[in-house]
Amino acid sequence: MSEDIKVEDLTLKKEQIVSYFSPPGGKAGMIIILIIISLGLYAWEPMAGIAGVIVTALIIWGGGKKSKPATDSEIDKQWDEIAKQREDEAYRVAHLDKSDAVRDAEYFWAYPQELQAGDDAVSYKTKEGLDKVTRRNYQRLVYMIYAKDQLVVFDENICIEDGWDGRDNIQEYYWSDVSSIGFDQKTNSLEIACGPKIIGFPLKGDGKEGASEDNSSTEAAENLSNSIRVILRERKTT
User: Where in the chain are the domains?
Assistant: First the structure.
């Protein structure tokens, strides 16, 4: 049974993340309209105008008390916090102790393959940040665990808005069967060749959600592929 993400231990609150992907709109316009109405009411009946001003002030004050939407960098940091929190879960599901690994596990974020279901489920959303990078509220966390005799791949789909995590998936590939590892920049995906089988991990969707790329995910996947190449070379020389 999968252990839940401990959202209470994360930096950002749910309201900040929800506001980032679904920013409240129209409040500024509504305030302007209320001010105009209040001025009109004041010209007609001073007390009614004063009441309108009070209502407008309460709306402004109430909006100021709410949590501010998260920033691009805060969203990225939250994803990193989630990934680091899930490292122990990856080892637990893989039935491996950290002491059994030949090097530290590494992770990257890939395109999600599973979303929540149900009427109250959080829908899939994207947002282009100020840095022109498209961010998603769902991502697929992929952990590579380097055991002595095999490469263990743990992955699960996660929603950053409410901390939902999907089904845990574990695959094991003996090092003797892993023939190559590569990062395809055309498709922006990490690919592992095990004999005639190619296991792919696409980092983005079909391109309809925006042309921008998450350079941090790409860099993490490329670094991870380099780590696997080093292990493969070491095994060939021993």
Answer: 24-65, 71-237
